[in-house]
């Protein structure tokens, strides 16, 4: 069963929810974390490597799940889809903001939308990641427990995790 869509204000231009009708569901959780582009995050061209975005998105997901009291889901939510559009370069030492939002909650899956921003608010990467609920001994995906689904659909914006 999909979460019913409740109208709310249009997401800001350039946000991870822009253009995603499913992101207009009221009270879906989101979080913002900050990271710095470290030397191992860069490639031979001197800017961030594409794989760095995956790590940052997963760090934001971990922060969100901890905030929601759902750390027990680690190891039970395999990634089934990841896509990213790389829009701008980030360089060693740059401070970046990773915005992660639950965009859609399905019966057995969950869709995240993300935006990685450079200083000055420029979107450096945008994309989506889909996870499935598959406890360690399950032979496939299973429905979200009611208490987990409740948090995924009603917890709202979480306090940011920032440097400083």
Task: Note the topology.
Layout: E1 30-36, H1 50-67, E2 79-86, E3 95-105, E4 109-117, E5 123-132, H2 146-154
Antiparallel strand pairs: 1-3, 2-5, 3-4, 4-5
How would you describe the overall organization of this protein?
The protein has helices at residues 50-67, 146-154; strands spanning 30-36, 79-86, 95-105, 109-117, 123-132. It is built from 2 helices and 5 strands. Residues 1-24 have low confidence and may be disordered. It is 16% helix and 27% strand.
Key structural traits:
five-stranded antiparallel beta sheet, 27% strand
Question: Gist?
Answer:
With 164 residues, this protein is an alpha+beta fold. The protein is built from 2 helices and 5 strands; from the N terminus they run βαββββα. The protein has helices at 50-67, 146-154, and strands at 30-36, 79-86, 95-105, 109-117, 123-132.
Helix content: 10-25%
Biggest sheet, strands in spatial order? Answer: 1-3-4-5-2
Number of alpha- plus pi-helical segments:
2
Multimeric status of the protein:
single chain
State the separation between the terminal residues, measured CA to CA. Answer: 41 Å
Low-confidence stretches: 1-24
């Amino acid at each position: 069963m999909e979460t019913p869509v409740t109208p709310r204000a249009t997401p800001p231009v350039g946000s991870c929810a822009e253009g995603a009708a499913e992101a207009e569901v009221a009270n879906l959780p989101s979080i913002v974390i900050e990271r710095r582009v470290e030397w191992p995050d860069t490639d031979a061209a001197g800017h961030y490597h594409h794989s760095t975005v995956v790590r940052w998105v997963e760090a934001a997901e971990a922060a969100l799940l901890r905030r929601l009291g759902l750390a027990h889901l680690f190891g039970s939510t395999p990634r089934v889809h990841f896509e990213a559009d790389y829009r701008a370069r980030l360089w060693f030492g740059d401070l970046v903001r990773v915005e992660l939002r639950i965009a859609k909650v399905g019966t057995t899956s969950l869709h995240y939308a993300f935006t990685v921003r450079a200083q000055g608010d420029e979107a450096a990467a945008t994309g989506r990641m889909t996870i499935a609920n598959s406890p360690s001994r399950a032979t496939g995906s299973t429905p979200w427990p009611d208490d987990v689904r409740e948090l995924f659909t009603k917890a709202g914006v979480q306090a940011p995790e920032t440097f400083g």
